[in-house]
Design goal:
The protein contains 1 helix and no strands. The chain is mainly alpha-helical. The radius of gyration is 21 Å and the shape is rod-shaped. 0% of the residues are buried.
Length: 50
């Protein structure tokens, strides 16, 4: 079974895009968590410096 017909090409592309979207969402969630941790750390550090 190859990707020589429209149905198989569409199935392949859908699977590929789903995987890419999942990776993108994972990266965005990681970045948001990192920002939240960094903000908390900075706020805590600012509070102890005063």
């Amino acid at each position: 079974m190859g990707r020589n017909n429209e149905k198989n090409i569409k199935a392949h592309n859908d699977k590929l895009h789903k995987a890419q979207d999942k990776a993108k969402a994972k990266k965005a969630a990681s970045l948001a968590l990192r920002k939240a941790i960094l903000k908390k750390f900075r706020d805590d550090a600012k509070g102890t410096a005063e």
